[in-house]
Give the backbone structure.
Amino acid sequence: MQLTRLSAALVTIASLAAMACKTDLTGLNTNPNSPTTAPATSLFSNATVTTLSRWNGSGTTLSMTSLFAQHVAQVQYVDEDRGHIRPTTVDGFYAGSYTAELEDYQKVQDQGKASNNANFWGPAAVMQSWVFQNLTDILGDVPYSEALKGDAGGPLKPKYDAQKDIYYGLLKTLTDASAAMKTAAGEGLGSADLVYKGDAAKWVKFANSLRARLALRMSTADAAKAATELSAAFAAGVMTSNADNAMLAWPGDGVFDNPWSASFSTRDDHRISKTLLDTMNLLNDPRVKIYAQPTKADPTKYTGLQNGMDNVTVTPFFNTTSRPGTIFYPGTTTYGTFGTSAGKKTPSYILTFAEVKFMAAEAAERGLGGQTGAAAHYSAAVTASISQWGGSAADAAAYLAQPSVAYVPGAEGLRRIGLQKWISLFTQGTEAWSEWRRTGNPATIKMGPAAYPDVQQVPRRLIYASNEQSVNAVARTEAIARQGPDLTSTRVWWNK
């Protein structure tokens, strides 16, 4: 059913007939079988697949952000793991984000607003906000307010907005989308909605949960605004169970596959990080056997690879360290509530109920957002994450019963919230890396032994795309003057 839904949603624009017929004489110059405007449904489903492939796939997550979060490590092609960011790697996801999914989401919004249908434009606004959040979190100042306006006669060289202004803009967009979808009566995206199948109530929860994420992230940089937004987001209604998780469940048909699975089916460049596995092994974490495979050298051991090794010193660890779990490899295993999974079908996550409960736990401990009961939120978060990855309630209860895992109040409680949140964000590299930058948890994330000479610390941001130096040089230069040098050591606004 999922395959049918996704395949139908991704029907090519060329097959959509008679969409551009006109009633006046200008129709004589219009091919009735070649639509001038793609339907919102087609644009949305295509943008969703592109978004998850880009932001949860090999080009961004496996090649950069999951390395910096030290969820995975590279056993081959180790440049990024040693702190060297190749400009061409940034070029691909940066340009692609603007010319593909961001533009498609904008077109869906334009069509939805033209027909006064919030059930069309609302989901597109939420997804577009998530992409912009990713871009600004990893780069800092980026084109935002003037972006995506070139086709309508707007700037072809948009300014780079300050990250604070981008965050304020995204918070307003999410607030407006949530309110509009809550009362909307128009037809939804239906089968073209690959995240929630047209369920507007779930989109409202996602919008508010994403708003809470942004508010908490800026809580050190702009405490007053963050507190107001966090309270409002929780009051408006956030995710309440794993059934609300924002994710794409891939059909696994060989065309639309989980991006990690697609990468691992042809390459063997990654192992689970020593930082992650050492932590999970120490805590007797039941998710170890989901996240990782035993080593080939010893099928009784789950051993991580140290990040930041060079091509020579890493070679002996090829078969003595753990590959990512079998749930990411084609033709393997069953796990959890998703039933039979052949690796290709493993979902890609955007934002989960577990993350929402971790946010509530932190907010309660810090006295933010009107939240109370940090311990209960923390336990619910850990339980939700274990369940999300196929574990049982008994697994979660036994895990939480350990003194090293059980919640304690105060600074240690905040440390445990941050640590468990980092563990739970596996496969969501950009978010896990951002959380480490914000909280410092876990403190065991350090630069590896073979870091490039000009790299003194785990990256705090990525560098700008190299082609921006030629196509939008003035705006880029202004951003660097405002934000700081275009280096991986420069901190973004919310991390200063």
